[in-house]
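Extended Data, record Histone-lysine N-methyltransferase protein
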Amino acid sequence: MDALQQALSSRGLAVVHVPGKGRGLVTTKDFSPGDVIFYQEPYASTPSKLLGGSVCDGCFASSNLRKCSGCRIAWYCGNVCQRSEWKVHQLECQALAGLSEDRRKMLTPSIRLMVKLLLRRKLQYEQVIPTTPTDNYDLVNALVSHISDIDEKQLVLYAQMANLVKLVVPYVEINLKEVAENFSKIACNAHTICDSELRPLGTGLYPVISTINHSCVPNSVLVFEGRVAVVRAMEPITEGTEVLISYIETAATTSTRQKDLKQYFFSCRCPRCTKSLDEDLQENAIMEGYRCMDKKCYGFLLRDTGKPLIEETKKTANEIEKLLSKASTCLSSGNYSEASVLYKNIEQIQSKLCHLFSINLMRTHETLMKIFMELKDWRSALTICQLTITVYQRVYPENHPMVGLQYYTCGKLEWLLELTDDALKSFTKATNILRITHGTNTPFMRELLNKLDEARAEAAYKHSAGRSSSDELL
Ligand SMILES: C[S@@+](CC[C@H](N)C(=O)[O-])C[C@H]1O[C@@H](n2cnc3c(N)ncnc32)[C@H](O)[C@@H]1O
């Protein structure tokens, strides 16, 4: 741990004990918005789709993938990644290739993650793979497991999973109890690896980043560049402050957030979770409340005041539930035309029932926007995108990546519709947020910056062309 503290101190960080939270990461220098606080390769990682070959095992890129001819489970984007993964994969490959069809079917991403973790530990112990102060199994050992908080059913499941791991790699020395506990560690420490647009790709265990605690009003954000986890400051962070990220979707009421945090075995005491009852009711009303049925009134109906909802509201809510299940079946089967009709219907009914800032209505709008984009109906997609931005600005903090990404989508739609000035404004707003959360040096950000330059040049050209034609008129 001394070696870790030394490595962290050169980055202006320290792991400390935080009362009520266990360990936490604190700053020993100031950080500005957009500064990288820490970045780390995973100790072990796995794509979430095992058989489809969705991403490269090495860098999580999704193009030019080729299947490993030995195990036919791992995929690589080229020789560089295949070689960099080879020491661990060589052992994994032999194990996977020898599995019967039935056992292969039981191979889940969690099992594969554990197999890779144990193989890496073995190779580090044998000094085939080097260790560093921020990359060694002692850091995995130090992670919280909450094993004593887990119910019997979950414990049995972890024990069964540990047995399966033993069957996959029988030649690795395995303590079944330790492996079961490791599954519990993964549950409360591993992170979902996402692409730049926050779409999930897989899971990774990042033992140093796992010292960062949660807040529903975080000062930092975790994003991924390939499979490298990068924590950036979202706001000015002064020396001696705890670095905090959010483990969950924060566009939710306090009770929903607390439910989502249950898997981590703590009750959040952040400023949002400890608001006064009045303030909390107000937030709930905005996010989940129904609108007043009097069309002239812009007030809310609270869902959780205990008063029975009036009959009409209940009936409408039931109607929405039924339509939603039909619509999502349509959507998952790729029938976008029919899904668009159903979701438009849902949107109309929800608009009568829910307040403009309701999360449920926002989710319907998000789905509808994606459907319109699939149908290449750019105009309708733009209208919906603009609606969601208004809500995002209320439910997310100022520099949240979701807000930046939505501005980016808005800009792309405006550009397609040749609304150059609007596109320029949207790309500028997207850049102002995403350069803080995503940095500027990734292919994703370079593409956005290129689009911004293009929109700027086109807008300048259009304005100068407009000016010269009006000069000619004079
Ligand atoms: C990823 S770990 C974070 C580091 C952890 N505190 C440690 O000691 O290693 C997640 C665990 O930290 C604790 N934790 C995280 N955020 C917390 C918070 N806001 N309040 C209390 N405990 C928290 C919970 O025990 C949770 O399961």
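Summary. The chain has 16 helices and 14 strands.
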